[in-house]
Amino acid sequence: MAEFTMDLNDEQKEVRDWLHGFAADVIRPAAAEWDEREETPWPVIQEAAKVGIYSLDFYAQQYFDPTGLGIPMAMEELFWGDAGIALSIVGTGLAAVGVLANGTEEQIGTWIPQMYGDAGDVKVAAFCSSEPDAGSDVASMRTRAVYDEAKDEWVINGTKTWATNGGIANVHVVVAVVDPELGSKGHASFIIPPGTEGLSQGQKFKKHGIRASHTAEVILDNVRVPGSCLLGGKEKLDERLARAREKARQGGERVKNAAMATFEASRPAVGAMAVGTARAAYEVALDYAKTREQFGRPIIDNQGVAFQLADMRTSIDAARLLVWRASWMAVNGKPFTAAEGSMSKLFASETAKKVTAQAIQILGGNGYTREYPVERMHRDAAIYTIFEGTSEIQRLVIARTLSGTPIR
Ligand SMILES: Cc1cc2nc3c(=O)[nH]c(=O)nc-3n(C[C@H](O)[C@H](O)[C@H](O)COP(=O)(O)OP(=O)(O)OC[C@H]3O[C@@H](n4cnc5c(N)ncnc54)[C@H](O)[C@@H]3O)c2cc1C
């Protein structure tokens, strides 16, 4: 087990500086354009692929860093550059992690390369779980997967929504109900290979922020995939369902805890994205406050402004500490006895929303225009309190964990 440390080692510093350079030189200058266009920034993803930032290898290296700091450090730097573009770069990772976590070696080897493509022909992937009537309440999912034994095929029907890269992905990972009796324990994940008939893009959403990231509905109309597209395989699914039925009979407690541990481990990465956006807005506000003069002196000479900056920086550092602690705990198998992963996501995402609003205030009228980036950063920051579980759901998880009672 790696000791918890706040000091990045030389290798980590090198990676951080390299990512920062890419964020500053490639992502940041493209941010306003792709926000206005509201389109996937393919040329930027291609650049990221060329230098090795858009690849499974890169994320796997960061993920398996025993200090736990690889992923949060990478997310913070990329999202410091721009949240919409960074999500276009890391969004495929959501689907890839779905396959890594549940797939067989053969599935990992077959599908993950097709999710990323290569530098000459980049592809993206989508992870589709949310539905119009199943957002926070994942258990009410309706998309149904039925096994056609005669053909060894799964037939999938339903509508997914809010899917990052939905409809433009080369590979979609779709979560569907295989046993409605078991609630969220009766779900399974499926690969939908490129060009599969019956999968189509529904509405593409016009969003408040992260507009360079494509978000859309995905319609599944009698989609047929081979048995080999069930992640983990049929035998493992049957065993898991049998265990879930047995545990449901005994009260279901252990199954619930296993699912929760997975979320606790993934949420700090979203917290790190929020830290990146908050830090970016804070830096713009600090520079502006030092140079903007009113009443014959820089506005930072006023406590009213300087204290805001002090509070902003304090919250950002506190958020990073919570994120790094939870990431270290996840990699080192520490039990999340106080829902520390949810805590980090809750605090960092609320910090990003608040800090980016404070940055607009410090820039005054300029902050309210698209001439300066804090307006975009504030719009972007709102997403962190919504996806991967809203702030209310994080509070619910933390409160339930602390109290041991099923708070509603
Ligand atoms: C830009 C974007 C990208 C996304 N990307 C993906 C993706 O790639 N794949 C995917 O599967 N999903 C994705 N999502 C979906 C996202 O995870 C959901 O939007 C989120 O889980 C919330 O669900 P909902 O929107 O249905 O809100 P709802 O669940 O309807 O919640 C509405 C409000 O009610 C509150 N609320 C609900 N239940 C409770 C409760 N028990 N106690 C207190 N308050 C409650 C919520 O906190 C929220 O404030 C994305 C969403 C967005 C906006």
UniProtKB/TrEMBL annotation:
Keyword vocabulary terms for this entry: FAD, Flavoprotein, Oxidoreductase
UniProt entry tagged with the keyword Endoplasmic reticulum: no
Cofactors (names): FAD
Occurrences of domain Acyl-CoA dehydrogenase/oxidase N-terminal (ranges): 9-115
UniProt xrefs under Pfam families: Acyl-CoA_dh_1 (PF00441), Acyl-CoA_dh_M (PF02770), Acyl-CoA_dh_N (PF02771)
Family note: Belongs to the acyl-CoA dehydrogenase family.
Domain Acyl-CoA dehydrogenase/oxidase C-terminal stretches: 258-402
Species classification: Bacteria, Bacillati, Actinomycetota, Actinomycetes, Kitasatosporales
Residue stretches making up the Acyl-CoA oxidase/dehydrogenase middle domain: 126-223
Originating organism: Streptomyces africanus
Entry protein name: Alkylation response protein AidB-like acyl-CoA dehydrogenase
